[in-house]
Design a protein that fits this description.
By secondary structure, the protein is α/β, with parallel strands linked by helices. Helix content is 40%, strand content 17%. The strands form two sheets. An eight-stranded mixed sheet has the order 6-5-1-7-8-9-10-11, sandwiched between helices. It is globular, with a radius of gyration of 21 Å.
Length: 355
């Protein structure tokens, strides 16, 4: 990948930020693309990634590292423009932070270089709404205590979905006083199985990640906040709530690959074992993902009515689609809903889809 191509991919990320409701990042990422093309500080920062695969998300790594500078007090001029750091964003001038952003990249080359080695991990809490939907769908047929496991779990924040509150125009599920409230969870019709869901009891929960984040550490919390977008304060509030819940309900996220983790799972009598993941498949090498799929096939094949298993996924499906699928009781996977990559709002899938 040449720097010109990396610049083009950065422009594509700017467009995505605009679509996903971040005018500040849409403006800044577009200027990063221009700076790469012009040979500025951003070009120097990402020069070692000219051949990086598209899925490495180099632009988001750069943005996360610079955001961390603002959040940690190392770039006060930039922080003055970032609502996440106590600053003010002017919608009339969405690119106003650019001079301070460019100066931060130029002034902290070692810091930025370190963050470019890290995979982006938003641990997006909004995706829990989709994942819970799939879990409750499977629970209708297997009303058992749930053993919940996640691959690519990051900090494990979405392993506590039973502690969140989910709301739509005429729908609510979960404790009203939850520290995490996912509003506008659905656009249009809410699935009927959510209106009268079975009782949910999570008996066990755990996950894996090659680079797990400790949500209770200051460095871990900084990383999670840095990968959010600074003008999206609602997402930041959800993250703060999820961090508070993480302190109350510990969850172990093992430092192990997805293949090893799923291969070790077994259905257990008297429970519904649920394996789920969201927007992580593209980061897993093809050979390892083949192991995951083979292990899921084994789990599906060995499950019984008393030792049940479900595979819930919210992943890209091509054509700009992000789909919630559930495999429970055998192939094929059932497509339940579609949503933006951040998970909110979701829309019930009524048309025929193949997956």
């Amino acid at each position: 990948m040449s720097l010109d191509r990396l610049s083009a991919l950065t422009e594509r990320q700017a467009n995505a930020c605009a679509v996903l409701g971040s005018p500040q990042y849409a403006a800044l990422v577009a200027r990063v693309a221009q700076d790469i093309r012009a040979g500025g500080p951003c070009a120097d920062a990402v020069a070692g990634y000219a051949d990086a695969p598209m899925d490495d998300a180099v632009p988001l790594r750069l943005m996360g590292g610079v955001h961390a500078l603002a959040l940690s007090g190392r770039a006060p001029d930039l922080a003055a423009h970032y609502p996440s750091a106590g600053g003010v964003f002017d919608p009339a001038d969405p690119g106003a932070a650019w001079p301070a952003f460019r100066a931060a990249v130029a002034g902290w080359p070692g810091w930025v270089a370190d963050w470019l080695t890290r995979p982006p991990q938003t641990n997006e809490v909004g995706r829990a709404s989709l994942l819970l939907t799939g879990l409750l769908w499977a629970l209708r047929e297997s009303p058992l205590p749930v053993r919940l496991f996640e691959i690519g779990a990051s900090a494990g924040l979405n392993l506590r979905p039973d502690l969140f509150r989910y709301e739509a125009a005429d729908f609510g599920w979960g404790a009203r006083d939850s520290a995490v409230v996912l509003t506008e969870a659905w656009e249009g019709a809410v699935p009927e199985w959510l209106r009268d869901p079975p009782a949910l009891t999570i008996a066990d929960r755990g996950g894996c990640d090659l680079t797990p984040i400790d949500p209770l550490s200051s460095d871990g919390a900084l990383a999670l906040r840095a990968y959010l977008w600074p003008d999206q304060t609602v997402r930041a509030a959800r993250l703060d709530g999820a961090l508070a819940l993480a302190a109350r309900v510990p969850v172990e996220v093992q430092r192990v690959g997805a293949g090893d983790f799923v291969e070790a799972l077994r259905p257990e009598p008297g429970t519904l074992t649920v394996l789920w993941h969201s927007i992580m498949r593209q980061y897993v090498p093809a050979a390892e993902w083949a192991r995951v799929e083979a292990a899921v096939d084994r789990l599906v094949g060995s499950a019984t009515s008393d030792a049940a298993f479900a595979h819930v996924a919210f992943e890209p499906a091509g054509g700009g689609r992000f789909l919630l699928t559930v495999r429970h009781g055998g192939p094929p996977a059932t497509v339940l809903a579609r949503a933006h990559p951040h998970g909110l709002p979701a829309r019930l899938v009524t048309e025929a889809l193949t997956f």
